[in-house]
Amino acid sequence: MRLLALLILLMLPGEVLAETIVASLSTSRVAITSNYTGASIVVFGAIERDSQTVARTGGYDIVVTVRGPRQSVMVRAKERFGLIWLNREQQRFFDIPLYIAVLSSRPVTEVTTDALRRRLKIGLEAIVYAPDFTVDRGGRDEPFRQALLRLRRQDRLYVENPRGVTFLTPTLFRAPVGLPATAPPGNYDVDIVLFADNVVLSRAQTHFELVKIGFEQQVAAAAREWSLVYGVAVGGIALFFGWLASVIFRRD
Amino acid sequence: MQVYLPIAEIPVSVLMILSMGAAVGFISGLFGIGGGFLMTPLLIFLGIPPAVAVGTQQAQIAASSTTGALAAWRRDAIDLKLCGFLLAGGFLGTLLGVFFFAAMRRAGQLELVIVVSYVTLFTVIGGLMLRESIREFWSKRRGVPRPVRRAGVHPAYLGLPLRMRFPRSKLYASVIPILGLALFVGFAGAVLGIGGGFIVVPALLYLFRVPPAVVIGTSQFQILWTTLAATVLHALVNDSVDVVLAIMLIIGGVFGAQFGARAGRNLRAELFRFLLAILVLSVGLRFAIELVVEPAEPFSLQILETRR
Fold first, then answer.
1. Domain that includes residue B103, residue range
2. Which of A164, A206, B164, B223 sits in a 20 to 30 Å window from A226, CA-based?
């Protein structure tokens, strides 16, 4: 009996975990310099198979999810109140990624079942409508989730690209991630999931950081750590330029 | 050409910021007002976080008022004594305003307070100024000289106790209404994030009948000190002053202010008042429209600031 169980256990990984993904990024550190206007990072990956791997009839699907630094966001709704429009209801989203990109080789709805998609948070809708994304208020949170998704999509900070992952060979893929200039500095997590026939075969995680360097970093550090000196210095610059202009323009 | 702002954390077009600074600087130099009530919404419209917009434009106003104040200084158009009283009252008002600001934020109605105050303040002040200057035009056209200022006839509030002479402003008035004005301006400035020049200028012009040349110089001198203090405070408390943005705004602003000040000297006084009235009134109406018209997008999103 025990022997049988051991045999099954030994066979299981060979069956289920036959494929693994190996992934890498074109860079693990994106530098913000004074002429920074956004960046592009490429996720490269390979699906590794061994001799026992069964042939997949439906082919592979890859979903890459990039999540940016987290912060709390408040969404407010304006309503008519007498003559004027006021912010009435509001919904707080506690510690959510300010940037999300979902790239896949096919539309996420075709990659797997709805139930699995919701459970694994595959696709923007599944992420934003997840119960732990904000406080559930019995349906009243629904329009706020919708609004958050719409507004972030408008700013191109939540993006979904159903053709974002391309296969170079049947087992080799690449996925370019476009970071708009407004994407906040910080740590970005990249989650890569391999699907075949609606089920997850393998997952891989990696991450990169978006950081200010050089002058930008020094200014930010000075403003944070030496705020009094920094403030006085900015005031001094203002006085100096004001005086300089009056010298330049003094003709009368 | 794009440049990345280290504190605002977005790239902006250098040319755009320079010309915005020049445009607001021109208006600032022309009317002797700070121009914060124009610059702040413009910066926010460009996508700069509101806290950074408010903090940084204080530095720009400081620079353009330095130029303005120096020019006024050479023309001997600053009433230092009056300015001292304005600053003293303004300081107290700012403190009260900061407490009120915090209280309204706790009550969750800060945004409403701000928009409604903008609408009332700007439409009322702008409307009063417009009425005054239209009446002025009217009587001039009919050739009936208005009794502008006769010796010995003064509004009652100037005759309150503690009267004092302000020779530079040709004013002999009680310091109580002057301190009251400064208190109100400081309060409104702290709550609305504005310098308050557009309140001080018309008040000195209409309520205290100070000569226009002295009004502008005095108001710019006062704004200079207020905004310098505000720049340091914003940097200290909120880390929200972007030096790169500030320098670009300043360079645009000082040039604009210089030309504005020249244009202002050639402008007839009643036309000057009329234009200022139109400017203030239109800002008020813009906020009123925002309040009344159904928004295209009823939802708004705000990233909550966290201590870093």
1. 2-144+155-292
2. B223
